[in-house]
Amino acid sequence: MNRQPNYETPDSSAASTGLTDADVRNTMLGSIRLLLVLAAVAAGLIWWRLGWQSALLLAVGAGISATSLWEWMRLIAAINERMDAGRKPRPMGMILFGFFARLGLTLAVLYGSLKYLHSTVIALAVGLGLGLLSLVLEALRLLKRSTL
pTM for the full model? Predict the structure, then answer.
C-alpha cells in the first residue's frame, strides 16, 4: 500500500458566493436606512434623558457615519467598475476628491460640535458607533440570505 498525498490545488473557480455589486449596494443602502432609524430613536431618548446638546451631538455622529457609508459605497462602486471588463469606468479623480473633501469636512464638523455644544463626548461616540452597528447588522442579514 503505497499512498501518495494529493498535492493538487482545488479548483475554486466553480465555487461562487453569488455576491453581486447590487447586493453590496443594497446592503450599504440598508445600513444607512437602519442607521437613520436607530439614530432617530436614540436621539429622542438622549434628548429626554440628557438634553438637546447631547441629542444633537449624537445626530452629528450619526450624520458623519451615514456620509461615511455613502462615500464608501461610491468608492466600492468605482473600484468595481474599474475591475469589471467591458464597462467604461467613471473617472476616479472626482470620487477621490469627494472622499477626501468629506474627510476634511468631517474634521471641521467634529471640531465645531465638540467646541460649541458643551456636552458629553459619549453621545458623539454612540452616534458614530451606530453606523458600525447598522453595517454589521446588514452584513449579517446579507450573509444569512446568501447562505440559505
Answer: 0.78
